[in-house]
Design goal:
The complex is a heterodimer. Chain A is of the alpha/beta class. Chain A has helices spanning 52-60, 82-87, 105-112, 121-126, 129-150, 165-178, 195-210, 225-231, 249-254, 256-263; strands at residues 12-23, 26-37, 41-45, 67-72, 75-76, 90-93, 183-187, 217-221, 234-239, 242-247. Chain A folds into 2 domains: 1-89 and 181-268, P-loop containing nucleotide triphosphate hydrolases (Rossmann fold, 3-Layer(aba) Sandwich), CATH 3.40.50; 100-179, no CATH class. Chain B folds into 3 domains: 14-271, 3-Layer(aba) Sandwich (Rossmann fold); 282-355 and 357-411 and 465-472, no CATH class; 476-637, GMP Synthetase, Chain A, domain 3 (2-Layer Sandwich). Chain B is globular and about 80 Å long. The chains are: A alpha/beta, B alpha/beta. At the A-B interface, helix 5 and helix 7 of A face loops of B.
């Protein structure tokens, strides 16, 4: 199990130091620092093109920053490939769904368990002994911890591409959870959802963050300010590669610079309802 | 009775029967199964006994006294039944609420029933109970069984079902004979259920039913259609519906068949297929749903499959019609029907989970003859049942081989049914309830000299079958003065897969009109195929193409009707009728008086020369939020 990791709540789990990321001459990230503490929901907000998704990609290893360092649980991971970071307990969902459309919901989620299955091709083909135990444990985990949590019993066997968008988003979260991560990167999990689906998703995020069983630290990139301000412990504001501020939601909401850069004059921070 | 032989006496109570059955089967037989985490998990009668015993004792240690009311709400699951049985074993009275009850209804029922305990399933039900607790001072304890989402609830009157059972175990160690003692107290004449009827007109009334009522109900129904302890039954309709109590407790406990609980309400259809029940009782809308599912799949399938289907239904209908007329089916047709059965009917039945079905019942509302024919053409022994909460379930049922789809059948044993001079159906049987809780006036109106006045109109036909006309107040008078049942029209309309709900209007009016609710999924799919763009139900329902589609369905239903009963004008409503908007009862019956008042603008529009009617109204979401709707609805005329 990846869970635990020896860190106590409130200790730094993810640290980003002076990360620079250029695409040609465009600075997507220009010296960003980020400090995520264990057990918190840490949101990153900013206007379109602020570099939020780039930051996610740097954290999970899809991009390699030109300058700067990333530390996960004190270990430098800047040079590691995505799979190696996944093995250490970093998991993510994508802004644009990256499910395997032709595969069933269950298979998509099972795929997330991949790093926990140790048996080889030969052992896997006979289903005895250790392999069998491993399979049963994995099944139990998926059914009892993920499918039940996300309430997707009725779509278990449906091909992912047949599902409505809101449910696909849920399945994607399920796959990310199958990794049993310690840190989860949620890239716009609420985009394109209707009000009811947003409420459900916000609840799932709170569940995985608070439930004794999970206690997953969340890094959340999201445009829905109502939800961000309601559920985040801390908020980080980016603007064109630069960090404007980092603090608890109440402070961020009152910061004039943030309002100017991101919110305009309107009071977009008011909650949805 | 199917081989059990337990005699139902005035002394026998449900708890005593429960203990006897648990002793008889012990851990050698499965009492119930629940699908959880993707697997069917069995509970033996011994497990059932242990869970009920400790729960019951736990409630006693929390202060439950004999005669106390215990309210329950939640999906069908073993814990729900345990809670009910535990309450009964301690001498309590069970009160079930529909899981989609709105706050106001929950408050009314909890308060009116004087419930002291509340069993919820999840955080959702607990929230409902918490929000009304201050207004229901008699409510003392709230019990939950699913820990999900409950981490931040610390009120001292909240307790988990597991914890209650622990308290029960502790009490059992102190007083090992207490449970048996409790079970042996009381008689069959004691009240066991307080069931709130979903009134189509007024506030719900609480019907008091005794152990004797419930047990004789099961005995008399099974005297007509025997069940066996090897049978499987899927319990997925609300426990707050008397039909489900009749099947799960009156019959189920008596005969000892296995109850199966689906994983989630959304998986019920799939789970039914996995179990393949032997007996089934459901309101018409479920059968209508199945018919619709088949019709839609038919439209979507390939040419060759459609042809096989057409052949098999043609043959099936022919054979079924002969059987309905009690005429012999000729050898050639019998052979063709056999072919149809192999090529199509068996497979279709398997998909619907009806393969092992011996008999299935529909009741609670009227079902159209078209649906009846459909199932009989498939070889499904679907029978009509007639009853009400006040008679602990049912009083009338079709006999095998004597099914007439315009009747509801003949009385079950020990049941007399008569028609009063005014044409009202009245009945008398050991299962007739003892009165309404705290409502002497209603009791006196309903119970006269042991006869139960149903409020339904009907007559008994030449074969002794009861024909239920309609709720007396729902019968309409056509322009030529003849009485007519709007439900009959509506069920005909609903046979079309495109129509979700229908409301026929025409009482004392010049002509008949209808307000139609399209089936969003089916019409949506149809529109997709036609490349029609739409973003919402409201928009889709107002498309001219959809109007024409609905018109075609109405013309189809109009075909065999007398000229005065034909629908001349209709409107597509911008939403479906919904129980949350109080337009339907919780058992999906249309509340005519209510919709008539609510949509009086539409009704006026239908009986004026107007082409459109302007609507300005609000709709209520399940969580109580409201949204205002402003729109113009088109009125379409049909030439007949």
């Amino acid at each position: 199990m990846v869970q635990g990791g020896g860190l106590k709540e409130g200790e730094t789990i993810l640290r980003i130091e002076d990360v620079h990321m250029y695409f040609g001459k465009v600075a997507a990230l220009a010296g960003v620092n980020l400090n995520v503490r264990k057990g918190e929901i840490h949101s990153i907000i900013g206007p379109n093109g602020a570099g939020k998704t780039v930051m996610m990609n740097c954290i999970n290893g899809l991009y390699k920053p030109q300058k700067g360092e990333i530390y996960f649980k004190g270990e430098r991971v800047t040079h590691l490939k995505p799979y190696a970071r996944a093995e250490r307990g970093i998991s993510r969902t994508f802004q644009k769904l990256e499910l395997f459309g032709g595969m069933s919901v269950l298979d998509n989620i099972r795929l997330g368990r991949h790093i926990h299955l140790k048996s080889g091709i030969l052992a896997g083909s006979v289903y005895v002994g250790k392999t069998r135990q491993e399979e049963i444990a994995s099944r139990k985990f998926i059914e009892e911890e993920i499918i039940d949590l996300l309430e997707i019993e009725s779509i278990r066997d449906k091909p992912a591409h047949m599902l409505p968008y809101g449910l696909q988003k849920r399945v994607e979260l399920g796959r990310a959870l199958a990794l049993n991560p310690e840190l989860i990167l949620l890239d716009e999990p609420l985009a394109g959802l209707n009000l009811e689906e947003v409420e459900d998703m916000a609840r799932f995020i709170l569940d995985i963050n608070e439930e004794e069983r999970w206690k997953v630290t969340c890094v959340l990139v999201e445009h829905d300010m109502g939800v961000v301000m309601d559920i985040s412990h801390r908020v980080n504001v980016l603007n064109f590669g630069n960090q404007i501020m980092d603090g608890p939601p109440e402070e961020v909401q009152g910061n004039p610079e943030v309002i100017k850069a991101y919110l305009g004059e309107e009071d977009l921070y008011s909650t949805r309802r | 009775m199917g081989g059990n032989g337990m005699e139902i006496t005035k002394e026998l109570t449900i708890p005593r029967l429960f203990v006897t059955q648990c002793r008889k089967y012990g851990d050698r037989k499965v009492a119930m199964r629940e699908k959880e985490f993707g697997i069917w998990i069995p509970f033996t009668w011994q497990d059932y006994y242990d869970n009920v015993k400790y729960l019951s004792l736990g409630m006693v240690s929390l202060g439950l006294k004999r005669g106390d009311k215990v309210a329950m709400i939640g999906d069908n699951r073993p814990e729900g039944l345990w809670a009910e049985m535990a309450a009964l074993c301690a001498g309590g009275v069970a009160v079930w609420l529909f899981q989609d009850c709105m706050m106001e209804e929950v408050k009314y029922i909890i308060d009116h029933s004087d419930s002291r305990f509340f069993f919820g399933e999840t955080q959702e039900e607990v929230d409902k109970a918490l929000s009304i607790k201050d207004e229901c001072p008699k409510l003392k304890t709230i019990v939950w069984d699913d820990p999900k989402g409950m981490r931040n609830y610390h009120q001292e009157y909240l307790i988990s079902i597991k914890r209650v059972q622990e308290l029960g175990k502790a009490l059992d160690q102190k007083e090992p004979d207490l449970f048996e003692k409790m079970v042996n107290e009381g008689t069959g004449d004691d009240v066991c259920l307080l069931f709130y009827t979903s009134g189509t007109t007024a506030l719900p009334k609480g019907a008091l039913l005794t152990h004797w009522n419930m047990l004789t109900m099961g005995r008399n129904l099974m005297a007509v259609d025997p069940c066996y302890d090897t049978d499987d039954f899927v319990s997925y309709l609300p426990f707050a519906w008397i039909g489900e109590q009749m099947m799960s407790i009156s019959c189920g406990l008596q005969i000892g068949y296995t109850l199966n609980f689906p994983e989630e309400p959304e998986t019920a259809q799939e789970n039914i297929r996995e179990i393949g029940p032997h007996v089934m009782f459901a309101p018409p809308r479920l059968y209508e749903g199945m018919t619709r599912q088949v019709q839609v799949k038919y439209i979507d399938s390939t040419w060759i499959k459609r042809k096989v289907y057409e052949f098999a239904t043609y043959v099936g209908y022919k054979a079924a019609n002969l059987r309905f007329e009690k005429k012999p089916v000729p050898l050639g047709l019998r052979f063709l029907n056999w072919v149809a059965s192999i090529t199509m009917q068996k497979k279709l039945k398997d998909h619907l989970g009806l393969s092992r079905l011996r008999h299935c019942y529909t009741g609670g509302a009227a079902m159209g003859p078209d649906h009846f024919r459909f199932f009989h053409a498939l070889g499904v022994n679907l029978k009509q049942i007639y009853g009400q909460t006040e008679i602990a379930g049912i009083s009338i049922v079709h006999r095998d081989g004597d099914v007439k789809f315009d009747t509801v059948g003949t009385p079950i044993p020990e049941t007399e049914v008569k028609i009063t001079e005014e044409g009202e159906i009245i009945s008398r049987s050991p299962s007739v309830f003892i009165g309404y809780y705290k409502n002497e006036e209603a009791t006196q109106k309903t119970l006269v000299d042991g006869w139960l006045y149903s409020g339904d109109r009907g007559f008994i036909d030449e074969d002794g079958h009861l024909v239920v006309f309609d709720r007396s107040k729902d019968v309409m008078t056509l322009s030529d003065g003849r009485p007519f049942s709007p439900q009959y029209l509506e069920t005909r309309l609903k046979f079309s897969p495109f129509i979700g709900e229908a409301w026929a209007i025409g009482d004392k009016r010049e002509y008949v009109t209808a307000v139609m609710c399209i089936d969003y999924a089916v019409v949506g799919k149809w529109a997709d195929d036609k490349k029609l763009n739409y973003t919402s139900y409201m928009e889709l329902s107002q498309k001219p193409e959809v109007y024409d589609l609905v018109q075609k369905q109405i013309e189809e239903a109009n075909r065999d009707l007398p000229a005065v009963a034909k629908i001349r004008k209709f409107v597509n409503l911008y939403k479906v009728f919904d129980a949350d908007d109080e337009e339907l009862t919780r058992t999906s019956k249309l509340k005519r008086a209510f919709v008539e008042n609510r949509y009086k603008d539409i009704v006026n529009g239908l009986y004026s020369g107007a082409d459109t009617v302007h609507m300005d109204t609000k709709i209520t979401y399940e969580d109580g939020r409201e949204q205002r709707i402003k729109t113009d609805l088109h009125i379409q005329k049909i030439n007949v």
